[in-house]
Amino acid sequence: MTESTAAPPPREDEAEAPRKAESEAPRDGHAGRPQSRGGHRRRQGSRGALAAPLLVWAVTRAVLLLCTFKVLTVPGPDYTSDIHVIYRGWSEVLRSGLFPESDVTWQYPPAAALAVLSPALLPFLDYAAAFYLLACAADAAVLGLLLGASRRPGRRRAGVWSWVAGVALLGPTAYARYDLMVTAVAVGALLAGVSRPRTAGALAAFGATLKIWPALLLLGAPRGRPTRTMWTAALIAGVAVMGFFAATMPGALAFVGFQQSRGTEVESLGALVFHVARQFGWEGQVLLNYGSMEFVGPYVNLVSDAALVLTVLAFAWLLLWRLRARTWTPSTPADAALTAVLLFTTTSRVLSPQYMIWLVGLAAVCLTLRTTCQTLPALLVLGATAMTLLEFPPGFAHVVASDWLGLLLLTVRNGLLVAASLLACVRLWRSTRAEADPDPDVTTAPSVRTSATSP
């Protein structure tokens, strides 16, 4: 007689146990489903994590607005004069259907007219007041984009906090220029990324027609179809925008000639040569030239040309990286964008305080991505931004005078940018070559297909 392998029927108390446990489980009054205490705590933690950066953002931005409205005073030169004098004057010319082609301080691509004219969206406010509020709105838009991106898999909130801190560290200058608006477009382009290459390409091109630098975002597009799609969309959008302004408003390309005539601005990396030379009797001086304080005197043209050579070499390195890169991670487009703009900014003949907004925005996108290789360069960018606030506006008189304090501020700020640039290059190169250059001493066993794994 063989033994039966069938399981004995469950006892009545065992059969009733699951139903009893289910009936005794606490339920959500809205959905009628068992309530998870862990899920409830996670939702509360998520709300708390969201509330903290929003609160800090609101407090710090209120302070920035109070500074721009001159309720709070920041020592140094008037950082709002660009808005209520220069921008306002440009807006009057632009409203007539012309670009200010006779004004050498107009050095921006034609779509910059949209930013200059944007205060017309708030006609019930004074031009400057409307501009500051719109800059704050662009700031809020970037925050919203980063918060939304940080909730996706493989993302984190570090980028949100770096944006909140970075804009605050730059001070009220951030709201007194239109660079925040450009940065919002660039951040949107990077976050669109590979999943929406047409959108990313169009936004990058539109950003480039506001200020040239967002064109650098295209360098990190993954090879193959994403690159073709993104670059094609960028070409179409760029030609459309530039063509529209060239056909409808005379003087749309006047900015090109004015940019070529720029010299060495006192805050740039090359300017350190003359700040040091003044300590040994160099006969040059600092003058307001092409809208910024520049060095004028012997050897200035030589240093300006050297800066252009450095920029060309930086672009050559970026091209070499692009050709040699083998591995793309989800963060490579943002990592490459931060590296490219760091090189462009650091080697430029002009390094105005508002340029730091570009780097803060790109660093925030990198820090949002867990796979980024640019964490340390991004932190160095934040340090350089804090030094920029000390340099302008409070310490700008010392910079112009080339005294020991001005020299110290510039050396530290520009030194941090140089360190961030070099480190970004090294890390970007390694992150995209790691899998292409395996250790020759390590051998990998070939994969074996067995009956257990065969379909």
Can you tell me about this structure?
The protein is an all-alpha fold. 60% of the residues lie in helices and 2% in strands. The protein has helices at residues 12-24, 37-68, 81-94, 112-117, 127-150, 158-170, 179-192, 197-210, 225-248, 255-260, 271-278, 300-324, 332-346, 355-368, 375-391, 396-401, 404-433, and strands spanning 285-289, 292-296. It has a two-stranded antiparallel ribbon. Strand 1 (285-289) and strand 2 form a beta hairpin. The radius of gyration is 28 Å and the shape is globular. Residues 1-35 and 436-455 have low confidence and may be disordered.
Compute the number of strand runs: 2
Walk across the major sheet and give the strand order: 1-2
Quote the distance from N terminus to C terminus: 42 Å
What is the rounded Rg? 28 Å
Assembly form of the protein: single chain
Q: Quote the average pLDDT.
A: 87
- The geometry reads as globular
Low-pLDDT stretches: 1-35, 436-455
Count of discrete alpha- or pi-helical segments spanning 4 or more residues: 17
Topology:
Elements: H1 12-24, H2 37-68, H3 81-94, H4 112-117, H5 127-150, H6 158-170, H7 179-192, H8 197-210, H9 225-248, H10 255-260, H11 271-278, E1 285-289, E2 292-296, H12 300-324, H13 332-346, H14 355-368, H15 375-391, H16 396-401, H17 404-433
Antiparallel strand pairs: 1-2
Which labels suit this protein?
single chain, 455 residues, mainly alpha, two-stranded antiparallel ribbon, 17 helices, 60% helix, globular, disordered N terminus, disordered C terminus
Task: Report a brief summary of the structure.
The chain is mainly α. It has helices at residues 12-24, 37-68, 81-94, 112-117, 127-150, 158-170, 179-192, 197-210, 225-248, 255-260, 271-278, 300-324, 332-346, 355-368, 375-391, 396-401, 404-433; strands at 285-289, 292-296. It is globular, with a radius of gyration of 28 Å.
